Amino acid sequence: MNIIVTGGAGFIGSNFVFYEREKHPEDRIVCVDKLTYAGNLSTLEPVMQDPMFRFVKADICDRAAMEQLFEEEKPDMVVNFAAESHVDRSIENPEIFLETNIIGTAVLMDTCRKYGIKRYHQVSTDEVYGDLPMDRPDLFFTEETPLHTSSPYSSSKASADLLVNAYHRTYGLPVSISRCSNNYGPYQFPEKLIPLMIANALADKPLPVYGEGLNIRDWLYVEDHCKAIDIIIREGKVGEVYNIGGHNEMRNIDIVKLILDYLGKPESLITHVTDRKGHDQRYAIDPAKIHSELGWLPETMFKDGIVKTIEWYLNNKSWWEEIISGEYQNYYQEMYGNR
Ligand code: NAD
Ligand code: DAU
Fold first, then answer.
1. What pTM was computed for the model?
2. Which among 11, 210, 224, 253 is the best mutation to test ligand 2's pocket, defined by most ligand atoms within 8 Å of the CB?
């Protein structure tokens, strides 16, 4: 099979490229990435010389570029990871989120319709369901939970999901959608909670916790997410949505303390800063459908995954130190300077 993976120079996309090359060496992977601030070509270094891998720098919103690529590659599948993915950035500047996450998805699917495809898979998020109240630990997001978004980011992802369903119903495009909870692991850009806290702790800088840090996220090791997508694109039913998560709810403050403890740094580094606007309270996925229909279960326990992750950041300082030495400094100052 020939599989186009968009956004493969980012966090989850690159982990998926590595997973696929190892699990299915017979399949060719074509990675399409615009290389925004979040995309890093050095991440893909281990596969750049692989004859079953090709990297193409392109924008998924660029219709002509997508058509040329499909002409050349005649892909069997497209797995769309490409997105603007950071909630905080979407609050500051929503427009690029609408372009990439909505228009880009439409352009990709139009191209799939034009050239034919066995499967178009949309990598979506649990954030499309909005949030759950803190005082109802019995509630979980199922695939039937109504879409009810909070941020420009989640609204753009929900819009894309609606388009994907519409292309299936209207044009019969063979689609699937996965909605995953928060990922952590190697190669995550250090503007997201876990790598940011690791990097700041190592530099003895303040750890900016939004509000009291009581918000809950449902954390999944990135490789488990990649395994789930791999199963969905090969065995999942066309036209279906699959939630992905591992029942691992944690409060932000507890994760931050755990990181400080592992690194032997003092809790006095924790700095409570102004809360995120519209901050979702709790996410919690019910993964019963993907478990019962496709046999998927998460394999990495959080206690092991977080150690692997911290150790990865300790052993790969050059990867993230280079990232945070450039334009990121301006972002950090703007985001946290007067908070
Ligand atoms: P990321 O920000 O690390 O990577 C996104 C990648 O997409 C980057 O390589 C970037 O260069 C590329 N990209 C951005 N705009 C593009 C465009 N117009 N054309 C081509 N490439 C473009 O994101 P991530 O955390 O790896 O998330 C990947 C996908 O998974 C996203 O769709 C996101 O919504 C979804 N998701 C993420 C999480 C999570 O916890 N990170 C959880 C659930 C779902
Ligand atoms: O749930 C899936 C989503 O998880 C994905 O769709 C998004 O692409 C991904 O970025 C992630 O969104 P979050 O907003 O949950 O992730 P983030 O790492 O930005 O924040 C996690 C929690 O930590 C959230 O409650 C906000 C808080 N936080 C975050 C940062 C960056 C802080 O307290 N301080 C911070 O500096």
1. 0.98
2. 210
